[in-house]
Every structure is written in structure tokens, then in C-alpha cells.
């Protein structure tokens, strides 16, 4: 039975699926690492050049998740190691989550829950929230996820604009050359772009000031896209109204100041954590591993 090494913790559902046909063990416990051809990891764990160096015959890295920013892609390319992720599997649920965070942030759903649980209902008035209908939504990044987010927002009757490095006329949406222009136009700014050098700390004080005191920021992309110090200051000083964050600059040990702010919703990188997505991701990675070893038998 072929052996696959895991480079860090992987979801139970994925491990069970792989163990149906393969031996799965941590890289540190591999009896013959020099013979290993396939490794499995997650977007959160990644794969370092040092780990790859321990596996001289490595040919395939299976990544549970869409993000590849924690995988040393340059090293993988230099060694001709294929990196296979599950980007398509996370698209639908991540787009759905953007809608959930939109309502949660603007209608203060989590705050309302805490208000009732604390026994405040009937003793004091709940602060009025902001209407979703009529909002303008600005989307940063119009890839597969961003496109689905746009479709869902339009389905709610909301006006949608976007910013990307280059316009996409086929999208049929208002395009903004600069993210500050988009932020000034919209009521809700949704981040859907990948983590790249160009998007590092893309959203800082200037963008947040443009978004304004009635604006809401939603981040379902990567924590590195936001200058977190600037965001914390903006939330604390009322520069923007609210934020809903599924990703952070440091995960899972996020900046403790965020937990003290009443106008931010914090989510544990959970946009794609559904039973259905986990099953699809496990199936995709299993199928790719099976194809690799089958090709080795018939090649």
C-alpha cells in the first residue's frame, strides 16, 4: 500500500478517505522518507522548502484548501513538484459566507444574540442597525469566488462594483481603477483577492477612510490583504462602522485587540468549512492521489 505523508494536521474526513487506500503518517514518522512521492497538507499548514528537502522523491503535494501562500511554490517549481489544491471546491460556500457576514455585520446579528443572552432585552434599547437593501457592494478581486459573490449580491437587488488589476468587461459591472475609488463609492467592501505581493496590506488607512464612517469591510480572502493595525484603529475610532473577518494576519493567534472591539465579527477561517465542501475536497485529493499512483503502475 503506497504511503502519503502529512506535513501537519489534516481534517479527519480527509484522513479517513486517504486511509481507505493509502498509508498516511506524519512526515516525522515516515520510515523511508526518501521513497515518498506524495505529501498532503492544508492551506493553513503549507509546505516549506525544508520539508520538501526531507522528501527527495516528492512528486506531488496535495493541498486541502485554496490558498497556496504558505507553500514554497518556487521550491516546488524548481523541483518539478506538482501542487494540487482544492480551489474549486471552496468557491460556493465561501461566496455564501460573504453574504452571511454582510447581514451579520450590517444588522448586528451577533450583537443582538449577546444582547438577549445577557438579559438586556427589556432593560435597555437595542441600538438600531443599518439596512442591507439599497447598499452598494464593492468587490476586490473578481475571480471565481468574487464572481459568485457578485452574483449573490445582485440576486439580493444590491448594486455591485469591483476593482481588479485589469477590467473584465464581460462581468457587466461597474469597474474602478483604484481601490480607494471603489471604497468611496460603496457601502460594503468585500475582499476576495488572493494573497500576492501586490495585495499585501492593500487595505490600509487610506482605503478605510474612503470607505467611511457608515462603511463595512468584509474579508474572506487572506489576512495579509489588510493592514491590521490600521483596521483596528479605524474600528476603534469610528472611521468605519464595522468589519466582518474570516481571515487574519496571524492565525489562529490573532491580534488580541480585535476581540475587544464590539463592531467586528470574528470568524475562525470558516467560510468553506461545511460538511459538503469537506467531502468534496477529500474526494478531489483522494482522486488525484489515486491517479498519481495508478500512473506509476501503468507508466
TrEMBL record:
- According to the entry, every stretch annotated as the D-isomer specific 2-hydroxyacid dehydrogenase catalytic domain falls at 31-294
The reply to whether NADP figures as a keyword in the UniProt entry is: yes
Record SUPFAM superfamilies: Formate/glycerate dehydrogenase catalytic domain-like, NAD(P)-binding Rossmann-fold domains
InterPro entries per the record? Answer: D-isomer_2-hydroxyacid_DH, D-isomer_2_OHA_DH_cat_dom, D-isomer_DH_CS1, D-isomer_DH_NAD-bd, NAD(P)-bd_dom_sf
GO MF term set: glyoxylate reductase (NADPH) activity; hydroxypyruvate reductase [NAD(P)H] activity; NAD binding
Ordered alphabetically, the record's keywords are: NAD, NADP, Oxidoreductase
In this chain the D-isomer specific 2-hydroxyacid dehydrogenase NAD-binding domain maps to: 99-271
Which CDD domains does the protein's record reference? HPPR
A GO cellular component term found in this entry reads:
cytosol
The keyword Oxidoreductase appears for this protein: yes
Tell me its family: Belongs to the D-isomer specific 2-hydroxyacid dehydrogenase family.
What is this protein's name?
A: 2-hydroxyacid dehydrogenase
